[in-house]
Amino acid sequence: MNPRTRAQEVAPFFDGTRLALARHLAGLRKSELANNIDRSPSAVTAWEGGAKLPTAANIAELAIGLKVDPWFFAVRGEDVTIIDVAPHFRSLRSTSQVMRDQALAYGQIAVDVASAIEVHAEFPAPQLPEFHVEAGDTVGPDLAARHVRQAWDLDHGPAGHQVRLLETHGVLVVFSPPGAAAIDAYSFAAADRPTVVLNPIKKDYYRQRFDVAHELGHLVMHGEAEPGSKAIEDQAHRFASEFLMPAEEVHDLLPTAMGRSAWTTLFRLKEQWGVSVSALLFRARQLGRLSDVSYRNAMIRMSQQGWRRDEPGAIASIEQPSLMPRSLELLNSVGITADELIAQCRIPSHLFQAVTGRTPIVDATGSPAPSDGQSNLAKAADRHEKRKSPVISLLRPPHATNYVFASPQE
Ligand SMILES: [Zn+2]
Question: How many angstroms is it from 230 CA to the middle of ligand 1?
Answer without folding.
Answer: 9
